[in-house]
Amino acid sequence: MKKRIWALALTAVFLLTACGGSESTTGDFSVTAGEDAQTAAASGLTLSMRVPETLNPLRNRDESVDRILKLMFLPFIGQGENGKPEGGVAENWTLSADGMSLAVNLKQNIKWADGTSLTADDVVFSYDTIVGSEEDAIYKNVTNYVASCTKTGTYSVTVNFREAFSNNISALYFPIIPAAHYQGQTEMDSAANMNPVGNGPYRMESYTMASSMVLVPNENYSGTVPNISTITVKITGSADTDDYSFSQGILDTMVTDSTSAGRYLAADDKMKGTAFDAGVYDFIGFNFGRDLFQDKNLRQAVAYVVPKDYIYESVYLKYAEMSNTPVSPASWLYEENVAPYNYDASMASTLLKNAGWADSNNDGVLEKEKENGTKEELRITMLVNKENTARNQIASRMEEELEAIGFEVTIDAQPYDVYSEKFASGDFDLVVGGWKMSEVLNLAPFFVTDGDYNYIGYSNEEVDQLLQTANSAIGEGQTLLAYSNLQKKLAEELPYVSIAYRQDVLLTSSYVGGEIHPTRINVFDGIEYWTLQQKG
Questions:
Q1: Helix 258-267 and helix 239-247: axis angle, to 10°?
Q2: How far is CA 71 from CA 12, 233, 395, 527, 528, in A?
Q3: Which of 45, 95, 231, 474 fits 215 for a cystine, CB–CB 3.0-4.6 Å?
Q4: Which residues, at least 6 apart from 402, have a Cβ–Cβ distance to it below 8 Å?
Q5: HEC states along 283-307?
Q6: Starting at the edge strand that comes first in sequence, how are the strands of the sheet with 101-106 ordered?
């Protein structure tokens, strides 16, 4: 497999900025007075976002703005709750035998909010817009996978990939925008770029600069007509402002972590919290630069004393999916049938004994005689980011568990910058860490020999081959089988002890009902099925 695919970044590295809005243009949309926005808020759903520097979804750089724009724009090919490609403006698609191109037929009933039809020209224009967008635009990473997009008919296109990579289709969840509306709009805050014309369940009715936006159902939407007739989007300055506004009933929703969610839900039993995969993978990693961890018995002993029930209940407050592999349990690629390493301190002690470790001097620390006749004691350091509360809790509990079976553990808690430097340079024995995984799954950089993020120094020829097979698989069946085989081997080998994939929580006020199913790539997915009771 070519080196470029190994090196595709898996961390979701989008630079999220909240820039000031421009006062130079208003475009053709309505700029409302604050009183109108307040009236809409009293009768409809109220959301939030930061001050947008643009309302063009393909040039936007702010995650909170992207969430709102998804209410107005459908993706090229979407992702279901399990991350499997589905839906969007694509009717169907066929992958070439060599995996290098994708022939896509578009749905022919999709119209823009202005009544015109979506065609292949819009898809090609959308991809070209991404190519010309800023490096930190939300969807810029699409160009890591897609080399070109060409029109093959009024409602058909061919996507040409840079490499034959198994998860290429997962990268095609970018929004499609109308070429006729956005053509020639080079300025981020031009009239057209601040007046979105989309194809989703909602359209923009008005925008009060740096204050609020009002959305109403899109009469030309091809799907289910939304139940909620008005959405007001408040412009807020920070997540802290959102937190306060939600606590005061000004906002009806808020995305938060497990700690904040627990606090809110404990205080209001009518409030709802819907968890969804945050893409954050937590693990315990071994430094394979130390001979100590070349012994799989020792790695397995560590795995058997990870108290996952405690971590799930007390650290994550039940907002996580405990995982036995580096793939999210929420993913269609997750393999359930792997070695689980359920908590078993007796098994851990047996493994250490079988590996030659014993406490011959009764000091509580195991030792082992080396080939040169000297004794090695089971003393290790455990690196953790001191600013990450959850991982510090895990490290503290792991210190207790490991010392109970004969380790002596020193926790090395460091600020993030120092932690990152020590992790990357291999200055640790064990590490309690985590990765923000990409929506386009690729495990190679973490586990392939000399991979860009293989900070643990792991090397295994069979795993290298399984990674190559997983990344070069063509079609769903091959990909599913390849990832199954890879996960079974990783669970057996234990370069990492997988702990969990953490969840974020979409909090909704007591007024909000209906089917609420947030996903990682769209927290408002299916918002047309939400309902709203009359506010008091």
A1: 10
A2: 22, 11, 41, 8, 9
A3: 231
A4: 302, 305, 380, 409
A5: EEEECCCCHHHHCHHHHHHHHHCCC
A6: 90-95, 101-106, 156-161, 146-153
DSSP H or E segment with residue 417: helix 416-425
Domains parsed from the chain with CATH numbers: 3-24+51-209+218-227+521-530 (3.40.190.10), 277-503 (3.10.105.10)
**Which DSSP helix (H) or strand (E) runs through 436?**
strand 430-436
Give strand pairing partners of 102: 95, 159
H/E element, 325 = none
Residues 176, 123: contact at Cβ < 8 Å? yes
Rounded CA gap, 284 and 79, in Å? 29
Tens place of pLDDT per residue across the chain (536 aa):
444 444 443 333 322 222 233 322 233 333 333 344 444 444 699 999 999 999 999 999 999 999 999 999 999 999 999 999 998 999 999 999 999 999 999 999 999 999 999 999 999 999 999 999 999 999 999 999 999 999 999 999 999 999 999 999 999 999 999 999 999 998 999 999 999 999 999 999 999 998 999 999 999 999 999 999 999 999 999 999 999 999 999 999 999 998 889 889 999 889 999 999 999 999 999 999 999 999 999 999 999 999 999 999 999 999 999 999 999 999 999 999 998 999 999 999 999 999 999 999 999 999 998 888 788 999 999 999 999 999 999 999 999 999 999 999 999 999 999 999 999 999 999 999 999 999 999 999 999 999 999 999 999 999 999 999 999 999 999 999 999 999 999 999 999 999 999 999 999 999 999 999 999 999 999 999 999 997 76
Q: What angle do CA 229, 234, 238 make, to 5 degrees?
A: 145
In order of 91, 123, 148, 319, the CA distances from 158 in angstroms are 13, 10, 8, 40
Instruction: Determine the Cα–Cα distance for residues 251 and 368; give it in Å rounded to an integer.
Output: 60
Q: Which two tokens stand for residue 131?
A: 């190519």
The closest of 473, 526, 447, 483 to 169, measured between CA atoms, is: 473
Q: How far apart are CA 377 and CA 368, in angstroms?
A: 7
Which residues, 6+ apart, have CB-to-CB distance to 191 below 8 Å?
Answer: 25, 26, 27, 28
In 3D space, the residue among 61, 55, 117 whose CA is nearest the CA of residue 89 turns out to be 117
Computed on alpha carbons and rounded to an integer, the radius of gyration of the chain in Å comes to 25
Residue 516 tokens read as 């609420």
Helices (H) and strands (E) in the chain, counts: 15, 21
User: In 134-274, which residue ranges form alpha helices assigned H by DSSP?
Assistant: 179-182, 239-247, 258-267
Q: Are 76 and 176 in contact (CB under 8 A)?
A: yes
Helix (H, G, I), strand (E, B) or coil at 237: coil
Report the predicted TM-score, pTM, of the whole model to 2 decimal places.
0.90
Three-state DSSP class for residue 234: strand
- For 1-37, give the DSSP string: --HHHHTS--S-------PPPPSS--TTSB---HHHH
